[in-house]
Amino acid sequence: MAILVGIDEAGFGPILGPLVVSSSMFSMPDNLLNSDLWQLLRKSASNSRKHISGRLLIADSKKAFIRSQGIKNIQRTVLACLNCLEKNPSSLNDLLMLLCPNCCQRLKNYPWYKNTQDYSLSYDHADLSIASEVFKDNLISNDIKLLELKSYCLDVAYYNKMVNTVRNKANVLFSATSMLIKHAFDNFDDDQIQVIIDRQGGRIHYRKKLLTMFENMDLKIIQQTPNNSSYELQANGKKMRLHFVVKADNRFLPVSLASMVSKYLRELLIDNINHYFRNFHSDLKPTAGYWKDGLRFIQDIKKHLPHLNYNADQLIRSR
């Protein structure tokens, strides 16, 4: 059996809210590694919103997220997949403990994240249960298993600290990605571990960065092309292959799922920021945290809540 891991992020560009990097991990027969998982799992999953008819939408989060509908489709997919893992979070705090327990203690220091246990995840339980069972049965029929969903959530103060340490946000993203790669390597022992990562910026060559992050491992370059940069890491007789692929979030189901997990967690945390500040001024327009609108939100806080004290290092990212 082989392990196939997809890694993707949400929130690389914004000025407000966390950067979230996530992974989804599947086991499958070796001969399915190069298969189109959407085709294999077409009874239970689709990468298109059209004619979804009860199946799970698993797509790049930028396509799955519709501002007018909110996170409905993304939430349904993420929670159904967690249900396949026999995990059933009922609150944001539960979700954080499942996906990224290491960030929970840090989040307690933020005034807008103090009530995550009271932030309920509202959804159609019956629909979710059915979709989850259909997806799980479809996986089993193809000898595929969802092993884990995991996130690395960089709250703003932690993100700012990392930027100051590693000099820029591209290095921060690569560091977080490397943590998920290392987790997969350390926790799974199958003969083949393949990791697919959405290409980070326009970078083609990753050798130097990989040698820095995995200095105790042997590295072999398989290929470095404009579309795909592949490497093999080895230590103690164990191997792992990494593939940095252009538009991987559109081309590989595990990467799409990781993208949706990242987006879901980030949107919930952004919603907490909006709730916190709007409790002081209900006419304050919510923000998604992206650069232009994030700056507008900051100015609105200064205008409408001039006497409200908050730690800007917890709210606003450094570049």
What does this entry look like structurally?
This protein has 319 residues and is of the alpha/beta class. It has a single domain, classed as Nucleotidyltransferase, domain 5. It is built from 13 helices and nine strands. A seven-stranded mixed beta sheet has the order 5-2-1-6-9-8-7, with helices on both faces. Strands 3-4 form a two-stranded parallel sheet. A hairpin with an 8-residue loop joins β1 and β2. The mean pLDDT is 94.
Notable characteristics:
single chain; alpha/beta; Nucleotidyltransferase, domain 5; globular
The name of the CATH superfamily reads Ribonuclease H-like superfamily/Ribonuclease H
Give me the secondary-structure category.
alpha/beta
User: Judging by the overall fold, what is the CATH architecture?
Assistant: 2-Layer Sandwich
Cα gyration radius (Å) = 20 Å
Q: Helix and strand string, N-terminal first? A: EEHEEHHHHHEHHEHEEEHHHH
Count of domain modules: 1
Average pLDDT rating:
94
Task: Report the total helices.
Answer: 13
Large-scale geometry: globular
Number of strands: 9
Q: Main sheet?
A: 7 strands, mixed
Task: Classify the beta-strand content into a percent band.
Answer: 15-25%
Helical content (DSSP H or I, runs of 4+): 40-55%
